Amino acid sequence: MSDVANPSSSSTSLHATTTLGIVGGGTVGGGIVSILTSNAPLFTTMTGKDLLITRLAVRDTSKSRDFITPEGCKVTDDFNDVINDPSVDTIVEVMGGTTLAKDCVFRALKNGKNVVTANKALIAAYLPEIESLVKSVNEDRNEGTKPVEFRYEAAVCGGIPIISSMQGDYVGDEVEMISGIINGCTNYMLTSMDRDGLSYDESLQGASDLGYAEADPTLDVGGFDARSKLKILMRLAFGVDVPEDEISCKGITDLTKEDFEYASMLGGTIKLLGVAKKLSSTEVAAFVSPAYVANDDVLASISGATNAVEVLSSNLQATTYSGQGAGRYPTANSCVNDIIKVCRGDVNPLPFNSKQEGVEFVNDFKSKFYIRLRYRDQNGITADCGRLCEEHEIGIYSILQNPIKNRNDAAFVITTDSVNLSKVKKFVAEVEGKSWCRGEAFFMPLLRDEAM
C-alpha cells in the first residue's frame, strides 16, 4: 500500500469545512479535482464551507497525472484508506465497475458518509439495494443528525441533469413515455453514416480516433450501455425495477449505408434510442434499438456525441433535455453539482414515482416496423412475403426498393402497420429460412408511429 501526502497549506479559514475523499483519479476524477480547486472561493460562498479534498485513491500512486493534486491531499492506492478515514465526510466514487465500487459505496454509506457517484453500471445493478441501505442508515441515526445523502446525477447522460429532473420536476405529473439518445458514441457513428455516407466500420474508426469508442466498443455499439441507462430512468419514472436482460436490446452493428438511404426515402434518419412507455396503470414496456426517426422530430436533429432525453408527461407534454452525455468535464460537472448540494444540505428527493406495487414489465411492444431483407432474385419472393405477413397478422404499409444492381445480392424494405415485436420476430425467422433470403433480416421500430 502506498500513501503519499502533499504538503499542507498553512492558511487558516473561519469557515466550516467539508472534507472529500475521491476514489478514482482518472478522467472524471481529475475533472472533479480541477473544477473544485479552480472554483474554490465561489463554492465557499455558495455553501458557507471550505471544500477540502483530503484523500484521493488511485490505481498507481507513481503514475503522473494531468491535474494538480490539492495541497494536503493524501494519495493512496487503497480505497479503504479513504472510506475508513473518520475525517472524510463525503466519498466521491468515480472508479467504475461494480465489484470494488459496490464494496466502496456500501461500506461508505454504512460508515455514515455521503456518497456521490458517476457509476452507471453500479446504479443500474444495485439502485434498489442502495436506496434501502440509505433509508436504513438514516433511520438508525440520532435524531437531529444530518441524514446521509446518496447522489448519482452523472450516472446517466453525463452533463444533462436528467436524474434530478426525474426526481423532482414531475411530482404533480405523470410520466407517460421516455425516449432518448443516451449513448454518445453510437450517435456520433450514426450521424457520420447519415451525413457523410460512411460505412459502419469507417464510422467506428472515427469514433475511436476521437476517443468516443472504447478499445472494446461492445457495450456502446451493442446497445448495452444505453440499456443500463434506460433501466435507471424507468426506475425513476415508473417505479419498476427490471432485470436488464429482460429489456429488448438491439445494437447498431447490422446497420448499413443502405438503411440510411431507405430512411431518407421515408423522410427521416436512424437513431439508437432507449424508449420506455407506460401502457396502462399496471404495465410498462421498453426497448433499446435503432429506430427510424422522422426529420421533423426533435431527436432527429441531435447530432454527433450529443445526448437527448424526451419526457412525455400528462401536464407538461413533451420536454426535451439535451447536452453532452460524456467526457471529463460534462460528467465531472454533474458530480460537482451533487457535491455542492450535499454541502448545502439540500434535501435529496426520492424518485417521485418510487417503487410501485402491481406495475409489471411487459417484454413486448407495439410499433410500426422497418424490415430490410436481402435476397437472391427469383420468382415468388413478393408472394412469400405477402403470405407470411398475412399468417402473422402483419399489415404491409409500403415496400421500398432501390434499382437492382446485383441480382444475387439485392435488398428491399417492408414497412408495416402497427404490430407487436413478437410477431415481427416470428415473421423474420420464417423469411430467413427461405432459399432466396441472404443472411439475417434487419428490423427496427418507427418512432412516434403508434409506437407501443
From TrEMBL:
Residues 24-135 form the Aspartate/homoserine dehydrogenase NAD-binding domain. The keyword NADP applies. Pathway: Amino-acid biosynthesis; L-methionine biosynthesis via de novo pathway; L-homoserine from L-aspartate: step 3/3; Amino-acid biosynthesis; L-threonine biosynthesis; L-threonine from L-aspartate: step 3/5. Residues 161-340 form the Homoserine dehydrogenase catalytic domain. One of its GO terms (biological process) is threonine biosynthetic process. SUPFAM superfamilies: ACT-like (SSF55021), Glyceraldehyde-3-phosphate dehydrogenase-like, C-terminal domain (SSF55347), NAD(P)-binding Rossmann-fold domains (SSF51735). PROSITE patterns: HOMOSER_DHGENASE. Pfam families: Homoserine_dh, NAD_binding_3. It catalyses: L-homoserine + NADP(+) = L-aspartate 4-semialdehyde + NADPH + H(+). One of its GO terms (molecular function) is NADP binding. InterPro entries: ACT-like_dom_sf, Asp/hSer_DH_NAD-bd, HDH, HDH_cat, HDH_CS, NAD(P)-bd_dom_sf. Keywords: Amino-acid biosynthesis, Methionine biosynthesis, NADP, Oxidoreductase, Threonine biosynthesis. Its EC number is 1.1.1.3. It comes from the Eukaryota. PANTHER family: HOMOSERINE DEHYDROGENASE. Belongs to the homoserine dehydrogenase family. This is Homoserine dehydrogenase.
